[in-house]
Specification:
This protein has 652 residues and is α/β, with parallel strands linked by helices. The protein has 28 helices and 19 strands. It has 4 domains: 187 residues, Aminohydrolase, N-terminal nucleophile (Ntn) domain (Glutamine Phosphoribosylpyrophosphate, subunit 1, domain 1); 236 residues, HUPs (Rossmann fold, 3-Layer(aba) Sandwich), CATH 3.40.50.620; 105 residues, no CATH class; 72 residues, no CATH class. The longest helix is centred in the C-terminal third of the chain and has 24 residues. About 1% of the residues have low confidence.
């Protein structure tokens, strides 16, 4: 694990020594255990390495094969090592000294361009084949490691981060106006709706599950993973599904415990991180090892404003996990003094662009820092669990049953749900039927019977001219990113949405850069390729049963996940519930800065200034917790305003 970079002059011009040296200099600013590079004529490859796994010290990167005809640079942890060691007939006595990069090389020599299909793990790599005079690049299935690139007729350059590519490109940095407009289009954490784009016009990113081949003859991008095309899983009994689930999920956790350092886990009181922590603790205990847990909690002066079914502080649920597993060392992280405002510049510089997970990024950063100080090299989490191991949305399920003609199943589950939650059976039916009306009929019903007008709660402060220029509304609808699409999805539509790569890529972006800053690797068993494929193949009836959502994980982890967590359906944790209150001392400065920045023509051309000014004027006094979405919009504008100013200053 670490960083990679490279340059390829497509017309054969030799690469200047200082070009590669400059890229390596920028990468070596991050913590690393080794750094090296290789250069031959028109090709340069570089690498910095973190020794995360026991095999890491045996890495030699860039790595050569076939008498130097094949050169690899890789940022990778490969998880299906046993399978690959057997496939390549590597002797058992050499297994512990076989680096992950060697497995990638052997996969290339065995399967060629199909090799990513056979690799499971977190990786980005580039491989120069001198025999073909081609550079082959790949990014893992869910984009846990970043891969940015610059491509022109004369030159191709790639890197784990953007900044070295800007140095290589060398001219005035042109911003991507469409990316900026997309950023403002949604009041949601997604930065972009074009998965290949970045905020810089000429810098692209390789999407998850894609390969890129570059030569003097041209370039080609291919997608190598299509999980939605997998056949459904058909087992005989509920117990067989539960056992199959445990096998694949436990393996996904176990393979991510391979490290020469300590293992940490980001632990909330929910099903996803809770299940990861319990499985990891059990596996580590069998080896006589301990697990460190990190739980975000509100700052000391926080005043609770949530209702009875939401929790800002999940310590009582975390504690039952700690009580059941005696080898977990907990840390409760309040991130005192850190706010979305006073960390904005530092974290924007780390991300290399404005970011929209404004509410919780400061405490994610604080946890990563603490984890690093504690000697951890791996930080586990369950980020993708809501769409994989714990997926089981009742609304999506009922939509699926109705649209597939399974009315009896829908009726049985609605009956069970109404009894379980003491809700009127007929009222539930009416809500579900309305949800499944065609859009025009649904809007007509709302106007006629409820007096509601069509609105989109997810609409952001994008300038109307920019929205029209880039046809943003049409694209958001096509991606299912408008409010009218969220609740009417079927299980299949929800799965398709979770696999469009946008969320994967953005998560990988943050995970990679936060990990680089602190010399750790964030790993998510709930996003394991095998876990995703297994969960996608499940029949919907395994996801919701007897009126219980997220049914499979609740049944399968009986005795492993404490019942207080496993069976909890009524109370949900609220991430960053204190983020608005944290800003209280800084609100006058934040408000004044926003007012100044709204007069900047460079920012005004992208935003609906009237909407933003009205929102700000309505918050003359300190905003309430209930106004969090409006404050989020203002922070989006502030983040972009600062970024535009910084880029302008650099160009001057």
């Amino acid at each position: 694990m670490g960083t990679i970079c490279g340059i390829y002059h497509r017309k054969g011009e030799p690469i200047a020594l200082e070009s590669g040296a400059r890229m390596m200099e920028l990468l070596q600013a991050f913590p690393h255990d080794a750094a090296d590079s290789w250069r031959d004529g028109a090709v340069f490859l570089g690498n910095t390495a973190l020794y995360i796994t026991p095999e890491s010290p045996y890495e030699t990167l860039p790595r050569q094969a076939e008498q130097g005809a094949v050169i690899l640079t890789a940022d990778a942890i490969i998880d299906n090592r046993a399978e690959l060691l057997a496939a390549f007939q590597i002797p058992a006595e050499l297994a512990d000294k076989t680096a992950d990069s060697e497995l990638i090389l052997q996969a290339w020599l065995t399967w060629g361009e199909d090799c990513p299909r056979h690799l499971i793990g977190d990786y980005a790599f580039a491989l120069w084949d001198a025999r073909k005079e081609e550079l082959f690049c790949a990014r893992d299935h869910v984009g846990k490691r970043t891969f940015y690139y610059y491509l022109s007729e004369e030159r191709f350059a790639f890197c784990t981060i953007i900044r070295p590519l800007l140095a290589i490109k060398g001219k005035r940095q042109e911003l991507n106006e469409e990316w900026i407009a997309n950023y403002f289009a949604l009041l949601a954490p997604l930065h972009e709706i074009d998965i290949s784009a970045t905020i810089y016009q000429d810098i692209r990113q390789l999407p998850p599950a894609h390969t890129l081949k570059v030569s003097a003859r041209g370039n080609e991008i291919k997608k190598y993973w299509e999980p939605l095309k997998l056949s459904p899983l058909k087992l005989g009994t509920d117990e067989e599904y539960e056992e199959a689930f445990r096998q694949v999920y436990f393996e996904a956790v176990a393979c991510r415990l391979r490290t020469s350092g300590e293992v940490g886990v980001m632990l909330s009181g929910g099903l996803d991180s809770g299940s990861v922590a319990c499985i990891a603790a059990e596996k580590l205990a069998a080896a006589g090892k301990r697990l460190k847990s990190y739980t975000a909690v509100p700052f000391a002066a926080y005043q609770d404003w949530l209702g009875p079914n939401a929790l800002a502080d999940e310590r009582e649920y975390v504690q039952v996990i700690l009580d059941q597993y005696g080898n977990i060392d907990p840390a409760f992280c309040a991130a005192e003094g850190l706010t979305a405002y006073n960390t904005l510049d530092r974290l924007t510089a780390l991300m290399e662009h404005p970011y929209k997970f404004i509410q919780n990024f400061c405490w994610l950063d604080a946890i990563a820092a603490q984890c690093s100080r504690d000697g951890c090299r791996i930080l586990l989490d369950g980020q993708n669990g809501n769409s994989t191991v714990s997926y089981g949305d009742v609304s999506n399920f009922l939509n699926s049953m109705l649209r597939s003609g399974k009315w009896l199943t829908a009726r049985r589950e609605i009956r069970a749900y109404s009894v379980r939650w003491r809700q009127n059976y007929r009222n539930i039916w009416r809500r579900v039927l309305i949800m499944n009306l065609p859009p025009t009929l649904k809007q007509g019903y709302k106007r006629l019977f409820r007096g509601e007008r069509a609105t989109d709660e997810l609409a952001g402060p994008v300038h109307p001219k920019q929205a029209a220029r880039w046809r943003i509304g049409k694209r958001l609808k096509a991606l299912g990113l408008t409010q009218s699409h969220v609740h009417k999805r079927t299980v299949w539509q929800a799965r398709k949405m979770s696999l469009n790569g946008l969320g994967f890529s953005q998560t990988g972006d943050a995970d990679t850069k936060l990990g680089l800053a602190y010399g750790i690797v964030r790993r998510d068993p709930t996003g394991d390729k095998r876990v995703i494929e297994f969960c996608l193949r499940l029949p919907p009836e395994q996801l919701v049963k007897d009126g219980v959502g997220r049914s499979l994980i609740r049944r399968a982890l009986a005795g492993i996940l404490p019942d207080k967590v496993r069976l909890n359906e009524s109370v949900r944790g609220r991430q960053a519930a204190d983020w608005v209150q944290r800003l209280r001392p800084e609100w006058p400065h934040l408000r004044d800065e926003l007012a100044r920045r709204l007069e900047n023509p460079s920012l005004a051309e992208y935003i609906d200034s009237r909407l933003v000014k009205e929102t700000l004027a309505g918050m003359a006094e300190y905003p309430s917790d209930e106004e969090g979405s409006s404050l989020f919009m203002l922070m989006m504008v502030l983040a972009m305003g600062r970024f535009l100013e910084s880029v302008s200053a650099e160009d001057d």
